[in-house]
Here is the input.
Amino acid sequence: MAVYAIGDVQGCYTPLMQLLTRLQFDATRDKLWFTGDLVNRGPQSLEVLRFVMSLGERAVCVLGNHDLHLLAVAAGIAKSKKHDTLDEVLRAPDRNGLFDWLRARPLMHHDADLGYTLIHAGLLPPWDLALLQKLAHETETVLRSDSYAEFFHHMYGDLPDHWSENLHGFDRLRLIVNAFTRLRYCDLEGNMDLRPKGPPGSQPPDLLPWFQVPTRRSRGLKIIFGHWSTLGLWQSDGVIGLDSGCLWGHALSAVRLDAGAMDFISVDCETYQSPHGT
Here is the structure.
């Protein structure tokens, strides 16, 4: 059995199939980890959702910001944005089953045997494994409940930007979701700044990539994440970044987790949209 982690697909179904051919993926034996953002901006979100759902327990997928945005639009809470490509999913006859499946995806996945933790975007400095598992569970419970739509009324926004155990209600949930699905940079005190989207070195001088904050309590974890296409493939600081910008005409990438070598495997992609921030 092989275990592969794959970066943000964002509706790029054809490159995904090409990558799986390159990996010689066997759905009866192998397992795939997805960093989230299965959908949006690319041309075939519906095909991607159907395929990953069909894998059952052979696929692990954490929620990304575009996945949550799709669910909010489907619930009638949010409106589609200019560059969204979600209409085919929203009109699909099996949409309800797809949305129920997507809502049941986790915010993080930790495999003690393999020694890897999968997230979409980032973790705040005070969060160790026990706390991030607790916070993910809190939010997943809300998303899987009958009143999940109420959360989407409060999901959008950049504040609060600093973790405190005293946070409660929708402020607490919004901060958790923003960190797990949108974080790139924060300062030494752990204050999130969700505006900069460029590569390290382009940010304001008081900010650091979340994984380079010296006080980060998750430093003992081997973390796999996506979300940050301008970062590209990254293997340093105890983390592996897998968003290699498939959507922008770069590549869709994977890494094998159950073997000793940590080589990236990539396939080239067509340009589906021009970069404009994600």
User: Anything to note?
Assistant: The mean pLDDT is 96.
